[in-house]
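Q: I'm building a small set of examples for a reading group on sequence design. Run inverse folding on the following structure and report the sequence directly after it, with nothing in between.
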């Protein structure tokens, strides 16, 4: 039976009944005997939204093999396996931990560099080998960001771009650590189209042209600054939002530009029939 180390009173500020699931950020873990690491769990409601400020009770099925304290710090004491149980309210989750005498020789991350735009995210993976050159995944890794205002990282290594600049994302396993450089770059226009590309417009009639700007990521940039111009406002008038109106018989081209990119729509205005 699991041996419960300590009961922590639930903190105010959240509804214990709202907790539907506890989730470990690793499915299982490997520790070298003598190694210790802190476990983190996420509490989620029925919709999958994280519930913050949740107090967790920790226990181990084999405390003589892998112990756990009231803060979720586990330590491998002897070779073998144990189940670490996290409980919040009436909800619990288990993590299988293997304690081994094989130590880590090399520890790294990939990719070592990443370029993201604000709002984008990417996963940083950990590479671990032992003295025989064998993969030792998964390990319990502590993640950190040198500047969370530029890039934030979750306990499972997912990085989200917050602001422009450069940040170092570090993964630590015991005394070993490795870092990846994440550069958050601005979205820039890479393509511009206008629709419809051609239009027949009666004198006095109005239509709305639509311009679409794509970024270097091939994503739509809805807030891109556009400039609209008519080759002959006496024939076709256009406003700052791309609305056109036929003024007199003839043909005019409407040009929309965003930085160095532009597109045109040809507008034909037929003469009024007598």
């Amino acid at each position: 039976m699991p041996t419960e180390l300590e009961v922590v009173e639930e903190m105010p500020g959240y509804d214990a009944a709202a907790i539907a699931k506890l989730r470990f950020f690793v499915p299982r873990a490997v520790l070298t005997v003598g190694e210790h690491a802190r476990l983190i769990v996420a509490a989620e409601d029925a919709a999958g939204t994280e519930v913050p400020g949740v107090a967790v009770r920790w226990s181990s099925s084999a405390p003589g093999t892998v112990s756990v304290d009231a803060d979720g710090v586990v330590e491998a004491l002897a070779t073998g396996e144990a189940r670490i149980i996290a409980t919040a309210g009436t909800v619990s989750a288990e993590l299988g931990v293997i304690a081994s005498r094989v130590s880590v020789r090399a520890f790294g991350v990939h990719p070592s560099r990443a370029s993201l735009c604000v709002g984008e995210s990417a996963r940083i993976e950990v590479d671990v080998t032992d003295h025989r050159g064998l993969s030792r995944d998964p390990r319990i890794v502590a993640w950190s960001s040198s500047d969370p205002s530029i890039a934030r990282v979750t306990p499972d290594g997912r990085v989200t771009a917050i602001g422009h600049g450069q940040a170092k994302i570090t993964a630590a396993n015991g005394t070993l650590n490795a870092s990846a450089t994440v550069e958050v770059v601005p979205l820039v226009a890479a393509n511009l189209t206008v629709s419809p590309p051609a239009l027949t417009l009666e004198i006095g009639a109005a239509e709305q042209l639509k311009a679409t700007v794509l970024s270097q990521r091939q994503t739509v940039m809805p807030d891109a600054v556009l400039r609209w111009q008519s080759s002959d406002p006496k024939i076709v008038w256009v406003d700052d939002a791309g609305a056109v109106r036929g003024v007199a018989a003839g043909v005019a081209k409407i040009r929309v530009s965003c930085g160095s990119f532009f597109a045109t729509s040809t507008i034909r205005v037929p003469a009024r029939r007598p």
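The first strand starts at residue 3 and ends at 4.
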